[in-house]
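lol so apparently i was supposed to do this last week
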Amino acid sequence: MNLEHVARIADLNARYADAIDADRLEAWPDFFLDDGRYRITTAENVAQGLPLSLIYAASRAMLRDRVRALREANVYEAQSYRHVLGAPLIANVETGGLRARTSFMVARVMRTGETMLFATGYYDDRVVLDAADGARFAEKTVILDSRQIDTLLAIPL
Amino acid sequence: MNIHTAMRQWPAEGLTRVPYWVYSDRALYDEEQERIFRGDTWTFLCMEAELPAPGSFRASNLGDMPVVVTRDANGGVHAFENRCAHRGSLLCLKERGEAREIVCVYHNWTYDLTGRLTGVAFRRGIAGKGGMPSDCKPEEHAPRQLRIALFAGLVFGTLGRNTPPLEQYLGADHVARIRRVMRAPARVIGGYSQIIPSNWKLYIENVKDSYHASLLHMFFTTFRLNRLSQKGGLVVSERGGNHISYSMTQDVAGKEYEQAGLRSANEAYALEAPDMLLKSVDEFGDGIGLQILTVFPGFVLQQIRNCLAVRRVVPRGLNKTELAWTCFGFTTDDETLAELRLRQANLIGPAGFISMEDGAAAGFVQRGVAGAPDALSLVEMGGSGTASEESRVSEAAVRGFWKDYRRHMGL
Ligand code: FES
Ligand SMILES: [Fe+2]
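anyway here it is w/ FE2/S2 (inorganic) cluster bound
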């Protein structure tokens, strides 16, 4: 195990989650490479080998489009997340990056104050450590433990 | 009319008013289960593609009632109550799988794939002691069998004795419009569930409400997926409970939204990579870019460009509804079309650009009417009737739902 790899991936995910929780969504696409991929799916779909996603972006431009839609088009009640992340588990070093898994739990806080455990699961990440300006996700797949989503999933996970 | 409904009076205005107690009355909820879901209606259970081989099974629901759908050794499809004849345990504890028989985990009673009780553990006791009296007939307590109808790769079930044959229940328009979408053998590409914080009828009203589509969902409107000024129409079945809303991909160059200055006309709003998301092909060859079809009580078939899905509306209590989505393509899809479906799936579901608002909107009504059971909603867009029409600035399909609902409920 390379402790520096663990630390750098943990740092990348910590900064990633902080940007979302602090409502700095405009910074969210910048954690990805230009042709980075982002997907949210369920463990059930993965187990069956089915390709459907709840969110599927195949480029940073598509991520920026999602942020723009959330800011300007989609209608949802004010809410925020709190991510709690586990330690990254480095799966292997592949050409084109490190493969790592990181568990997460996300609480959702509604404007009314109502707080619930909104999502649990893990990130299956492919990280490039030496991109032009630091570590970036080449690929981030969010795998939800449950098939059920409460009401809506507006803010990314 | 029983004691409960006799206490409740539908407003004299008829279908243009809905009293809010219909979303919050516990006894009414229970009665709906009996009269509608376990009554003379067809419920969509699953796709045939979800039962690929002999021995395949799939858990589903008839309203509150859990059911198991199976494919037997000869390829026949069956559905029966997911309830053991012995003391009522769930029989099937998995969402899906394959089995040669079904064994209740509690005391190991066994069933074949048609739902027939085939074995009672220790029925004659052990060494002449214990066991069941010889005049006890557990087979007579077997889980209820549903009548099944297969249509265009879809499996429907009913418990009602007087449910009309499925194609008659659907009506000619729905038969044609379902066949139109199910143009080849289906292949499931995945699914998920959305928990809607409202009574099931509020979600149904939302999906039948062709008036809200381009007002609540701004994404939809700006990218011309479905403007009310696009050519299309609204079909409401004779009994009212089934509807189809559709529109052509081509805009008829209307500027109605801009002139009305509505929020959803924000022309400054443009996507960086719209093609990555919205690129589509006219796979049905008829220019229809959107078709939302419902069958009373809780089935939705959706075609949004190349994004195809079935949705099951499952009541999970008075103010909780599970919307179970299954997305599909066809076994004939090439890689390009398969990828288009996956990209366009960004439009739908709980995170969908054009559908994320729906679950919340139903919840807003549930919360909004909390203190007003006797107040009435106003359902007069497009008049007071339930006839099919060209304009989708209409609540005709919502009124149609209530027409059918009242008939089933005797309200
Ligand atoms: S409850 Fe099923 S065997 Fe006893
Ligand atoms: Fe909607």
